[in-house]
Design a protein that fits this description.
The structure is a homodimer. The first copy, chain A, is an alpha/beta fold and about 230 residues long. Chain A has 3 domains: about 70 residues, Winged helix-like DNA-binding domain superfamily/Winged helix DNA-binding domain (Arc Repressor Mutant, subunit A); about 110 residues, Rossmann fold (3-Layer(aba) Sandwich), CATH 3.40.50.720; about 35 residues. In chain A, the strands form 2 sheets. Chain A has a 6-stranded parallel beta sheet with strand order 5-4-3-6-7-8. A two-stranded antiparallel ribbon of chain A has the order 1-2. At the A-B interface, α1, α5, α6, β7 and β8 of A face α1, α5, α6, β7 and β8 of B. β8 of chain A pairs parallel with β9 of chain B, so a sheet runs across the interface. The structure holds nicotinamide-adenine-dinucleotide (2 copies). One nicotinamide-adenine-dinucleotide sits at the interface of chains B and A. The structure holds a DNA duplex (30 and 30 nucleotides).
Chain lengths: ~230, ~230
DNA sequence: GAAAAATCGTGTCATATTTCACATAGTAGG
DNA sequence: CCTACTATGTGAAATATGACACGATTTTTC
């Protein structure tokens, strides 16, 4: 029997908890005060049963006949997810993709702050380091220093495939623990480091397969999943 | 008992098949001719047993004592995945993210071709439609026409959240069957349409959770997964 | 304050996916 | 041709995840 004293929350569940938090935010903005598992389910694209199961895993809440108090639940979710305050994130690779990410305001809204970017190409360094709200771009040599200063744990990798492993090694060296990787390579990391890969080609290939004429199935799916890989 | 006559290949498996194809490509370039499940597993970040299971699902191959013939296996994978030739993909939203995608050469290498982009903002239209290898940007009004001309089935959505649903409706109307969605909203689609969501904030949130001090676990995972959602 | 309606919490069941284990088949060498 | 070695294919067990059902609890209404 799993209860909320277990620190183990499975991948999929964490993912859904994020969805719930997002949905709750919207509901809150619309002035709602409580929400039923049914409504929350609809708003986040899962089933009501699943919502209740997930929520009981992080500690009870709902009141039968009424639902869940939104503010309180949202607070609890943020506690569990650790998103009570802005979390610093750094980026390596200020190329086309990197710059799009740097200009993206969505991170702040979702609890993350892109505090610094790094590149090995002097042409990419930003003269005005961090002024006027834009993300400063530093030489890669400054990585450790800046990461330490911001106490960052998460890093985004947007460098060409051939540089990715080297960059990742430096990130780990600098104290980064979680890596969001856009380069299409399999990264080797030691025990204790988490890597999430975003590989658009794979997404497209899968989409393509499931939209072939032969009716396989049709689902809405969330790009997220956890193929656990052992490292040695 | 499942065999290769079943057209049903599960999500996860299709994803891994893509990984294998990629790994095989690399091995081929290095001059290898056959590969063992063990080696292929290592190269694509899964376990050897899993590789064999997956491969038997698409029809037998390997020779005991020797392994799998790379060329032949790769060909078969492309057959199954439907990536024997370049597949056309269209993009809506030529903003920061959209332009990064348009400039990305990786798609072609992976079997996809970004044939056209669309925007509602005249400032984004490209004067030189499709000349010199760059992706042409058309007014969104031309969507149906261009999609039909290229016979495109897959579309990428990179418009602001508030426009996303509307754009998706138009895409479906135009004949698009699979959608890769970058906007952070839950899209409503009818039966028969597949949506893959790429939500960076969710990725970060999950990364963050699994890198908290309390040692939960540490895995390398592939951003991919399938939360099935019922639509009515 | 009692009955009806709404909604939660959770045990149980069903399904999907992965891991294990091993018999089986093919290769290589002498 | 026979032996030793390697690597596959696959049933069965183990996990993980999601679906379902239903009793319990609280609100709402009269
Ligand atoms: N552009 C896209 O839309 C897109 C889509 C999917 C995946 N990707 C992947 O994302 C990565 C980046 O793509 P991009 O289009 O932004 O490429 P890019 O070439 O535009 O940018 C890469 C940047 O990384 C910098 N860089 C290279 N080596 C470095 C190092 N060792 N340390 C620090 N910085 C270094 C370069 O100076 C450059 O500024 C690639 O791996 C690509 O495959 C890109
Ligand atoms: N920029 C990023 O790094 C990033 C990261 C994650 C997610 N996203 C998401 O991707 C989407 C696009 O982000 P962006 O930064 O490129 O935004 P952007 O504002 O730079 O670009 C959006 C583009 O979409 C066009 N557009 C708006 N409504 C349209 C419509 N109805 N039809 C056709 N075109 C329309 C706009 O003209 C604009 O060119 C957003 O939903 C964002 O949340 C972006």
């Amino acid at each position: 029997m799993k209860n909320h004293t277990d620190q183990r929350i499975p991948y999929r569940t964490v993912y859904r908890l994020s969805l719930y938090a997002r949905a709750l935010q919207r509901l809150l903005e619309r002035g709602a005060e409580t929400v039923s598992s049914q409504t929350l389910a609809l708003a986040s694209g899962v089933k009501a049963d699943q919502v209740r199961k997930d929520l009981t895993q992080i500690g009870h809440f709902g009141r039968p006949g009424l639902g869940y108090p939104i503010t309180s639940l949202l607070g609890h979710l943020h506690d569990v997810l650790g998103t009570t305050r802005l979390r610093p994130v750094i980026l390596v690779g200020a190329g086309r993709l990197g710059r799009a990410l740097m200009a993206y305001p969505g991170f702040n809204k979702e609890g993350f702050e892109l505090v610094a970017a790094f590149d090995c190409d002097p042409k990419q360094y930003s003269a005005h380091s961090g002024k006027n709200g834009s993300v400063p771009v530093y030489p890669i040599q400054n990585l450790s220093k800046v990461v330490a200063r911001h106490n960052a744990r998460l890093g985004i990798v947007a460098v060409p495939a051939e540089s990715a492993q080297s960059v990742v090694n430096q990130l780990i060296e600098a104290g980064i623990r979680g890596i969001l990787n856009f380069s299409p390579v399999l990264l080797q990391v030691p025990e204790g480091i988490t890597v999430n890969n975003v590989n658009l080609a794979l997404e497209l290939e899968q989409l393509h397969y499931f939209t072939e004429d032969s009716a396989h199935s049709a689902k809405t799916s969330h790009a997220k999943s956890r193929k656990a890989i052992k490292h040695r």
